[in-house]
Amino acid sequence: MTTVVSDDGILLPAASRPFLVEIDGHYVWSLTPDRDGVRRSGGVLVPWPGVLRPFLSGRGRIRITDTTGEEVLHDAEVGLGAGEGPLAVVDAQGNRLSVDKVGHLARSFADTGEAVQQEILVGTRRALDDLREHAGVNAYLNYGALLGAIREGRMLAHDSDTDLCYLSDHTSPADIIAESYRISRAMRALGWNLLRMSGGDIKLLLPLSDGRICHIDVFVAFHVGDTFFQLGNRSGSLPRSSIEPFSTIELHGHEFPAPRDPEAMLAFLYGPHWRTPDPSFRYEDPPDGVRRLDGWLRGFRSEMGLWTGFLNGPRVTDVPRTASPFARWVEPQLGDLPVLDLGTGTGRDALWFARQGHRTGAVDFSRAGLGRVRRLARHRGLEVEAGQLILGELRSTLSLGTRLARDPHHLYARHLLGCLDDAALDQLWLLARMALRPGGGSLFLEFQAVDDQVPDTAAGTAVEPDGLVRRVDPAAVRAGIERSGGIVERITLAPGQDMFDHPDLAVCRIRAVWPAPTAPASAAPTEETR
Q1: How many beta carbons lie within 10 A of that of residue 254, not counting itself?
Q2: Which helix (DSSP H) or strand (DSSP E) does residue 476 occupy?
Q3: What percentage of the chain exceeds 70 in pLDDT?
Q4: 49-55: which pairs have CB atoms within 8 A and are 24 or more residues apart?
Q5: Is 304-527 assigned to CATH 3.40.50.150?
Q6: For residue range 358-410, what is the model confidence (pLDDT) as tens digits?
Q7: Residue 367 class from Cβ within 10 Å (0-12 exposed, 13-18 middle, 19+ buried)?
Q8: Crossing angle of helices 474-483 and 422-439, rounded to 10°
Q9: Which is more confidently placed, 212 or 479?
Q10: Over 70: is that where the pLDDT of 523 sits?
Q11: Which of the ends of the chain has fewer CB neighbours closer than 10 A, N or C?
Q12: 48 to each of 10, 65, 92, how far by Cα in Å?
C-alpha cells in the first residue's frame, strides 16, 4: 500500500516494528503502527502527536523509514495545514526539536554539537562525584545513557538527557523518602538547581553553553523482599548481585560507574530484545508495581505533562486575559484579607485581583503555568506570589496549609475541581480546613456541574479542554466540605462560562467557611438554584 501523510496523521501498513519520521532531513518522531494507530481502510492511521501539531503548517519533505534507513515508506514534499512557509519543528531560537521518550519536545543528542555533548558528560560525571562524596550515595549510569554506552558505544541519537540511579539500603518508603530529601539538600548546598519529581526522583538542572538546560535524572532503586523497584515505574526480578559491586563503562572517552551486570539491567529495563534499536520503545510496567510506587513515593500527577503541553501550546491563547465573571463576583466579598488562587492556570484572575489592590498569591501544579504567571506579573508591574501546590501529595498540601494557618487568606478556585480525583479533592478540603479555620477566610469555588436538568446531548454540556476537565456533582462537593467541618454558606447552579468563557448550561458557585471548633454553629446556608 501507499503511505499517505495528511493533517490527520500518517496512514501506513500494519506493522509491529518502529519507523522514523524526518522533516527536511531532521528526525522528529518515531512510531509503531500496530501500537500507536487505529485501523483504517487501506492500513493503519497513526495520528500526529499533540506536541507536534502546532508546527505542522507549511510545506516540507517528509521521509519515513525503518530504523536502518534502508526501507523507505515515504519520501516526498508534503503540504500540511494552511501555512505556506517551510515545515520546521524548532524552538524560539531555531533549534531543532523532536519528540522524546516521554512524549515531550526536546533537543536530541543527534542535534547537539560535540562540544555541548562533552559538557553533558562532564556534568554527569560531576553529579556522580557529588552524589558519592557529599550526598553519601553511590550512583550508576542507567536507562538511555547505559543503553547507548553498551549497545552503541555512544549516547543514543534520539535521547535528550542522562539518567542516574542509586541502590538504597532502605526498604521502608518513609526511609527512602527521607534519604531522597537528604540527598536533595546536599546537592542544593553544592549549588545544584534541581526539581523534585517524587519522593524518590529528582532532576538536576545542568545549564549548557548553547542556552538549554539538560536534565540529569537521579532515581532511587531498592528491594522489598525479592522484588526490585527502580523509579520510574520499573519493578520485577533483579538481584542485588547484578548491580553491586559496580562495573565501569566508557562513554565518549569518559568512564562511568555501571551495574555489575549491565546486560542483565538492560534486559530488565527494555526486555530481551534490547539490542535491537527501537526509538519508539515504550515501557510495559507491571500494574501492581506502578500502583505500589505511586502509593509509596509520589502523589498522582499523571496529567501534569498534559497541562504543561496545554499551557505551552497554541490553545492557551484562547483563554481570555481579562478577569473572569466569577472573579468579578468574588472580588467585592474579599475585604482586607489576601486571596490565593488555587490552580491558577494562566493566572488571569490572580493578576486581576492584584491589579485591584489585593495581596494575591497563585499556586498550580504545573511549572509552565507558574512561569507564565511570574512573567506576566513582572511585565505588568504586579506583585503575585506564585508557588507550586500538588494536591495529590500530602507533603505539598500540609506545607502550604501550615503557612496559610499563620497568614489568613481567602481561597479561590475556578474550574479546579473538575481537574481533581477523589484523593486530591480530599486534600483540597484538608487545605481549606487548615487555612481558613484560624483566620476566618472563605473558600470560593466555581466548576462545571453535573445537572439532571440538562440532557447529555444538549449544546454546552461538553467540557474543555477535553480529557483534562470533567463535570462535578455539586452534592458530592457539598458533602466533602461538610465532612471536613466546613459550612456551605451559598451555592448557586445556573448557566455560566467555561475556562475559555464559552457559554455553559450548568455552572456551580459555592462560598464555604470553616469555623473554628469553638465557634457557635452558623445559620442555615442560603441555597440558590435556577
Answers
A1: 14
A2: helix 474-483
A3: 95
A4: 49/99, 49/103, 50/309, 50/313, 51/99, 51/103, 51/104, 51/105, 51/309, 51/313, 52/28, 52/89, 52/99, 52/105, 54/313, 54/314, 55/87, 55/88, 55/89, 55/90
A5: yes
A6: 999 999 998 888 999 999 999 999 999 999 998 988 888 999 999 999 999 99
A7: middle
A8: 50
A9: 479
A10: no
A11: C
A12: 7, 16, 21
R_g of the chain, CA atoms, integer Å = 26
- Cell 484579607 -> residue: 337
Domain ranges of the chain: 4-89, 113-297, 304-527
**Amino acid (1-letter code) at residue 437:** R
pLDDT greater than 80 at residue 330: yes
Report, in this order, helix, strand and coil percent for the chain, each rounded to 5.
30, 30, 40
Confidence of residue 299 (pLDDT cuts 50, 70, 90): low
The Cα–Cα gap between 124 and 198 comes to 21
User: Would you state the pLDDT for residue 457?
Assistant: 44
> Alpha-carbon distance 352 to 327, whole Å?
8
| C-alpha cell read off for 67 | 530504523
3-state DSSP of 1-54 = CCCEEECCEEEECCCCCCEEEEECCEEEEEECHHHHCEEECCEEEEECCCCCHH
The C-alpha cell that represents 153 in the structure block:
558505544
Q: Which three cell numbers stand for residue 358?
A: 489585593
The CA-based angle 195-196-200, given to 5 degrees, is 140
Amino acid making up residue 336: D
Is the Cβ–Cβ distance between 333 and 354 less than 8 Å?
A: no
- Per-residue pLDDT of 179-238, as tens digits, reads 999 999 999 999 999 988 888 999 999 999 887 888 999 999 999 999 999 998 899 999
C-alpha cell at 267: 534486559
Over residues 101-113, mean pLDDT: 76
- Over residues 97-126, the mean pLDDT reads 84
Q: 377-402: b or e for each residue (b if 16 or more CB lie within 10 Å)? A: beeeebebbbebbbbbbeebbeebbe
